[in-house]
Amino acid sequence: MVIRRATVARAGVPSIDDDLLTEAHVRGGSPVGRLVTARPWMMDLSVAGVMAVVGLVGALFAAETARGATALGLYPPDAGVAGRVTATWLVGAAIGAALLAVRRLAPLGVTVALTVASLASLLFAGVLGVLGACAACALYGVAATRPARTTWIVFGVVLSTVTLGLWWWQDLGLIEIIAWSSAGLGSGWEPPTYLEAPLFSAGRRMGSVLLLLALLLLGVAIGSAARARRLHAMELVARYRALARERDQSAALARAAERAHIAREMHDVVAHSVTVMVALADGADASFERAPDRSRDAVRQVARTGRSALIDMQRVLGALGPADDDGTDGRADPTEVDLPTLVERFGAAGLPVTVTGLDIELPDDTSVRLAVLRILGEALTNVLRHAPGASSVEVTLRRTPTSLEVEVVDSGGTRPGTGGGSGRGIVGMGERAALLGGHVSSGPRLVGGWQVHAVLPWPDDEGGAR
What we know:
- By secondary structure, the chain is α+β, with helices and mostly antiparallel strands.
- It is built from 13 helices and 5 strands.
- The protein has helices at 23-27, 31-38, 40-71, 81-101, 107-125, 131-145, 148-169, 174-180, 202-286, 292-318, 339-348, 366-386, 424-435; strands at 353-356, 393-399, 403-410, 439-444, 450-457.
- It has a 5-stranded mixed sheet with strand order 1-2-3-5-4, with helices on one face.
- The longest helix is centred in the middle third of the chain and has 85 residues, at 202-286.
- The radius of gyration is 46 Å and the shape is rod-shaped.
- 31% of the residues are buried.
């Protein structure tokens, strides 16, 4: 049985390794291109094999050319020029093919070795053979892997060195092969008198030089194009990696923002509701013997607050799940959207709350309504927790032409608070207001007590405050 392992993306966000883009994906468009990119040594062996075959075929023409040159009287009949030229041509082809097979390991070293072999072939037998074509293939490797400056320096050295060798030592080149390979093969033909030395011809030398120049330029051009494609592929891969990292970082920031949102909501739901429930339970316990009816009402209020908090917690945790069928993200409206209910709950918990502007109609924007609800709830919770026994708590809601203001002022507690708190509440109020483009200021008053003042942008579409 074969067990297949599947990779699961974290939180539905793909990682860079899930769809990794490499140079092979960019450069290998065709099947042959993909094969060459995956196995470059196959291309080296193919080039070496082609040069070996070309050298073998060229050796046959070189032998005929040597015999034709002998028949023309350029060499003595017993000089053995044909054998020397053929052997040198074949050895040069073998050396060139062997060096091209390893050119990818050391392109510069192979180019130098082929240049030296070219000079040796010219000096020993007066022929260049296929070593010029091999040098062009080696220059391709240099141009494909080295900067342009290095490539052109190597090109100049190879061209000048081999050109000097051609000019001084070459006897049989391409033009000679074309002109002399069939000389003396006709019936009844008699060779002329032997010439002491082949006549020097600048035209014949120039033909070989121009052919060498064309081959070397072709190798540099193809190699430079290959290097440009490779650099372009590397640039595309680097750009893709950068975009993928940016995508993953954006996803991580989004997850962090979602966690912060959930933490803020959970703090508001749990801290506000539990604080009220504790105050109501303490009040119910204190009045159980003296006023059982009030105690019963307080217990019922505890139950209602707990149910409301439970529903809000389910709503907040539901945002962690997948989207609903209608495409929403599960963030429903809060269960407690009317301010009178919120103020009444804290009043039942023992806060002497006085409210001004409670009849202001809140905007239809759920985010603004929720921000007002949570900021007011946090401010009253802090009074209940940190200023127990406060003689007055004044809540004011004001509408200006450009904003909605929420202010909570308490007179200060007469008993020690129930705890230092986590500090998340004040931070959460500021974050909620900042998300809407507003701000929250809070701090102690000079006359005693604490003040919270929130300003939320809300332009008056009717041209005036209400």
